Amino acid sequence: IASSASPHVYAFLFPNPNSHLTFPFTDTHTLCYKFDVTAKPRPGQPRCVVKGHVDTELFLSYDCDDDKIQFMSPLGEEVKATDDWKTQIETLKDVGDFLREQLPDTELLPAVGADPPILQVNVTCQRDGAGRTSASWKFAFNGRLCLHVDSENVTLTVVHSGGRRMKEKWESDRDVTQFLKKISMGDCKSWLSRFLVHWKKMLKTTGNPGTQPASPAPRSRSWSSPGSS
What we know:
Structural class: alpha+beta
GO biological process, one term: antigen processing and presentation of endogenous peptide antigen via MHC class Ib
Pfam families: MHC_I (PF00129)
Number of domains: 1
Protein name: MHC class I-like antigen recognition-like domain-containing protein
Subcellular location: Membrane
Organism: Catagonus wagneri (Chacoan peccary)
CATH class: Alpha Beta
């Protein structure tokens, strides 16, 4: 954690105006990274995978255990040419390493049966047309949402009992809470802000962008609600 939380300057730069993306040009935009971390993967199953989304567009799939990258859209192709790409990948790998360390702290481990335990995590940041930003983490275990973290004030909310142990442990560990805040409120927001500067040049728009509806957030996972526990 200590090395992960050291300050860096990260940026996504997308300078190619000829890329043809499917994004609507709107005021509100969201960047989301979705991690799947498996405690005991089967043969051929990745231990850690992260997928990057901008609004509804999947642009990156990264195996953070074997360091394998797939670019899922023209946006992803632009990312690989940036000077800061190596640092970005190192950050995603650091997050994957951190998440693997948390698997033993989930209370749902004894109840997963024959399925390999999977920790599913979303880190999301959003910026609206007025420049206001927000960020959060969601932690689920085998499809059950357990813990929500409001990054701005570092408020941890247990959604299911499986997240109680993580909440109790993290609230007393400033290194962890600052790491979560730094990734979501620092790195993610910086990447999104810098990306939008170049995104406007890549999109062909008509009319006043401010009159168009807000762009949809990345598609949600199929996570169980507390009432289904």
